[in-house]
Amino acid sequence: MRTSIEVADIFRAAGRAYRAAHAGHLSLDQLKVMSAIETCRTAVMGGHVEACTDCGHWRVAYNSCRNRHCPRCQGAAARTWLAEREADLLPVGYFHVVFTLPAEVADIAFQNKAAVYGLLFQAASETMTTIAADPKHLGARIGITAVLHTWGSAMTHHPHIHMIVPGGGIARDGSRWISSRPAFLLPVRVLGKLFRRLFLTRLMALHDAGRLAFYGGMVHLADRRAFLRHLSPVRKKNWVVYAKRPFAGPETVLAYLSRYTHRVAISNSRLLRFDESGVTFRYKDYRRAGADRQQVMTLATDEFIRRFLLHVLPKGFHRIRHYGLLAGATRKARLDHVRQLLGVVPPATTDAPADPPDVRPPCPCCGGHMVVIETFERSCRPRAPPHATASTGTTMP
Question: How much is the pTM?
Fold first, then answer.
């Protein structure tokens, strides 16, 4: 049985009161996320009964909600996604590039998530592919895997794009692979200037087309002149694009992706306490260095829930996207062409096994094999176990 605190525990204890206090101010998407997390791996979701073939021990396992915002459900989703991406890795260095929106634009993004987050993807990817294709820089077509994060470590609204980029690309005529320098991909100042120009130009186009909405203290930005005044300071700022040192190898890339692709606003492992004083959790203060970077924060329960719900994405919005060599249905053919140019053997492909691997944990009593003996639908309960196994049965929500 688990003993740690989970986001689901907080939602189950305080979610009903929070929804009542904020009735009419929560979106349908936010309400659905709360409901999914609250019911995840409970009898509401249905499940199955497993029994040990050796000692007869039995346990009940409830289904997960599989919501992409649920901290409990992202581990399995990340493993599946990474297994599919492993075949895409190339034997070259990989770079990590981050594009971040200024605070003035992040405020607009919060009230226009689908439009502005989509624009963030578009402007950042076009910036990378344009500068990479320029003969003054790399002069090649590159591949990009981009992941949207909308949070800072303290769950504040901080939209930014993480990119994983191979260190090189295909020449314009397709005849050769052009490698980047070992510790340098593209000039970040050049990237920042083009990113700022592309983003602001298209943000103005969205405003002129009436595709941006403003509420509360930002309602005045519906006026074009007020919107221009609001953006005036960010036109003069340097939009910092951050490029980390290249990864040591493909295995390091996979380890990094496993931490970033399916991350949610806060993981259960960061939660420390939940009591009458609120929710206490660990976070990183990036203004500090060394051991002082790890800090502890306590938020009132309502504020914790509010911050978590800030990061609920619009329905159908894709937070992982691929560009250039990694985009589209012809990705495999392009990667095979790259491997030919690099003179490496494509990874061996194996037929999927007829039966999926058994991922059920072994029997906690004897280590034996557990088999499913019963399934039950949502909001139903399993039948009582046979008398011979009743004394050893346990329920594992």
Answer: 0.87
